[in-house]
Amino acid sequence: MDRRRFVRSLIAAGLAPGCWRPPQARPDTAAAERLLDLMNRRLGLMADVARAKWNTRSPIDDPPRERALLAAVAEAGREVGLDPADTTAFFAAQIEAAKAVQRECFREWEAAGRRPFPDAPDLVREMRPKIDAVGRELLTGLKSYLDTGRLTRVEVSALAEPRLTGDGVTPDARSLAVRPLARD
């Protein structure tokens, strides 16, 4: 093999002096998968939240409650070692995804001429405690995920597609939920 072909083969393999870079550590996908499963649990509650709001004709959006929730989770996140900006971005995305699911449910019910649900849960007494419980788990799941390193948008989306599913979970809702998880 002549010297030029040898050098070209080294360059192609990334082994020429100055070209070699150590392989980057791959973030552990187990933490991402666990976080996505928790996110799906929260999104899975949203059809019942929508049913409760449908029956009471309550609006989907509740800006004062959303602001209060974001302030509370930022403080709770700080207590487990999360940066408040990361916590706020993550939970703001979860709120937007939850509202997207609720809007999708409302669209379907409006199109079907749906009457009130006879067995809708109580939003305050039943649903909010469930959402809060998942929220506490999401804080530790988010911490674990961020500690292992963020995945790329493509990787997060690929993991999320089969995991974030259920009533009203559209590709838009899924995209909203995972947006703050990607490193790029």
N to C succession of SSEs:
HHHHHHHH
Q: What fraction of residues sit in β-strands?
A: under 5%
Number of strands: 0
What is the SS-derived class? mainly alpha
Give me the number of helical elements: 8
Terminus-to-terminus distance: 42 Å
**Arithmetic mean of pLDDT:** 90
Regions with little confidence, pLDDT below 50 for 5+ residues: 20-25
> What percent of the residues sit in helical stretches (DSSP H or I)?
55-70%
Overview of this protein structure:
The chain has 184 residues and is mainly alpha-helical. It is built from eight helices and no strands. α3 crosses α5, α5 packs antiparallel against α8 and α7 packs across α8. The longest helix has 29 residues.
List the helices and strands and how they pair.
Elements: H1 3-12, H2 29-44, H3 46-56, H4 63-79, H5 84-112, H6 123-148, H7 153-163, H8 171-178
Keywords for this entry:
184 residues, 8 helices, globular, mainly alpha
Summary?
The protein has 184 residues and is mainly alpha-helical.
